[in-house]
Amino acid sequence: LTFSLLSVTLLVSFGSSMLYGYNLAVVNSPAAHIKAFYNATWSQRYGHGLASGPLTLLYSLTVSIFALGGLVGSLLVGVLVERYGRNGTLSRSALLVLLAGSFMGFSRELGSPEMVIVGRSITGLHSGICLSVVPLYLGEIAPKNLRGFLGLVPSIFICLGVFFAQVLGLPELLGKDRFWPLFLSVVVIPASLQLLLLHCFPESPRYLLIERNDVCGATEALHRFLGTPDVQDVIEEMKEEQWSLSSVETLSVWQLLRDRSVRWQTLSVAVVNAGMQLSGIDAIWFYTNIIFENAGIPVSQIPYTTVGTGAIEVVAGLIGCFTIEKLGRRPLIITGFCAMGICSAGITVSLLLQTALPWMRYVGVACVVGIIAGFCMGPAGVPFLMTAELFTQSHRPAAYIVGGSLNWLCNFTVGFIFPFLQMSAGAFCYLVFCGVCLLVALYVYFVVPETKNKTFMEINHIFA
Fold first, then answer.
1. Pick from 21, 361, 365, 393: most CB atoms within 10 A?
2. Where exactly are the structural domains of the chain?
3. Residues 430, 436, 439, 441, Cα dihedral to 10°
4. 355 DSSP 8-state letter
5. CB 158 within 8 Å of CB 326
6. Rounded to an integer, what distance in angstroms lies between the CA atom of residue 167 and that of residue 91?
7. Number of CB atoms found within 10 A of residue 299's CB
8. How confident is the model over 388-427, as pLDDT tens digits?
9. May I ask the CATH class of domain 254-463?
10. Which of 12, 246, 33 is nearest to 150 (CA)?
11. 1-201, what's its fold?
């Protein structure tokens, strides 16, 4: 593990991946303040406030528009990484965060709820791009024995982003009414740092050699990342992949979906990415305060309970990161989904019994913590790592578009529908998440092979 490898991994994780986690959780604690701003603005414009239903709908749109922006960003990944490269795409995408931060930061001064919604959609656009490009970049620059470790570092920063949003949202910090625009726009700081420093690191060697046929540039990048003058073996492995793909152009999404030779890889990416979002984790991140309030936690204690769950996320993410190269990908993702499914059922039981047994509220909190811990140990980062590992260079951009699109579509669905699902189904809404988690775990157990310490060509041969 060289200084350059570690530095660029930390930089793109801090400047891109962490912002995804931050933006997932940032709307949770200031929800009441944002709704009050919407209501006051509406009253100034039209002479009357918003009713409860339309206000809930407008706030749900604010929460879930982030996912629609992410969907658009994921659809642009293939074009961007082919034109600008992996490093270049990440550098340029940081400008989107600066724009979004300006919209959200000045929204209250200008009396414009629309600026909050537009800013949220632009941050989603940035996250949609980076959620695919960061693991793609790291998967291509990392040696095979470190690919799992470096591939899960972004998931730790996603957890850190959620944790920082929870901490900054405390009433003693930025959780007050007058600070919520600043709270939403803090994202410009990590993005600015990435914009300033990322150009100091080279482009992906695999991109340079296989797609640009730049052997000299790829060799220099490998020297920099691997810290050794002898990189001929890696160059030969890349040339072998380039030769095998010499008659194959970079595939479009439609070509990928029609390619029978990679149908199981494509289906696996689709199942795992959709299952990751439909597992219920987004409902917990978006609506933590509401979930804890329904579980019977006193309102004054909810912000601190939420911060506690954020700390557990970070610990669980670290455990997953430091054990993935020993345990492998499959055990982490199967165990994570099974734990989440069991805990989802536990939340339902605790909500049904808490009237008769008041101590069941703590069981519900423990189950929420279990879902978060299970997710952060495996499903948070392994699906993106698997997408990089299951495909060769010609198929990889299209695979990230497929996985990313499903990821964001399901994210939007959960974020928008969950409040209404909770109102209609009550405690039983969590059983839907339970079923999804257990089905995904079964699929991975029976279909997806272990990819630890294998080259991209070896993994391709296993599926073939």
1. 21
2. 1-201, 254-463
3. -90
4. T
5. no
6. 28
7. 9
8. 778 876 777 788 788 878 888 887 788 778 877 877 887 7
9. mainly alpha
10. 12
11. Growth Hormone; Chain: A; (1.20.1250)
